[in-house]
Design brief:
- The chain is an all-alpha fold.
- It contains six helices and no strands.
């Protein structure tokens, strides 16, 4: 995909478009995920494993029509997993860059 700095900038821009409450909730969630990632030598939960566990809960929601194209679903799943991995691995840099004033 794109280089790491571009991913981080894109994620920060997307997060800055959210409300304060949503930013705060995501900060808490990814703080916890980053802590789990920090113990990866013990718990075997690297960022990819964490992303795999979460993606199904984040992306598959009732609004997907039954006739949804499976290729599109797989592509969206990969995008979400990539974003989760980047947010876990770059937690400090991403969440320090967010504007919490809005």
């Amino acid at each position: 995909m794109e280089d790491e700095n571009t991913k981080i900038t894109t994620i920060v821009n997307l997060l800055n478009s959210l409300t304060y409450v949503k930013k705060a909730v995501l900060h808490k969630v990814f703080f916890l995920l980053n802590a789990i990632y920090g113990k990866r030598d013990v718990n075997r939960m690297n960022s990819s494993n964490i992303a795999i566990c979460l993606t199904g809960k984040i992306i598959f929601f009732p609004e997907y029509p039954p006739e949804a194209n499976m290729q599109t679903i797989f592509e969206e799943t990969a995008i979400v997993q990539t974003a989760i991995v980047a947010m876990i691995e770059n937690f400090d840099q991403i969440f320090r860059s967010i504007d919490y004033s809005t």
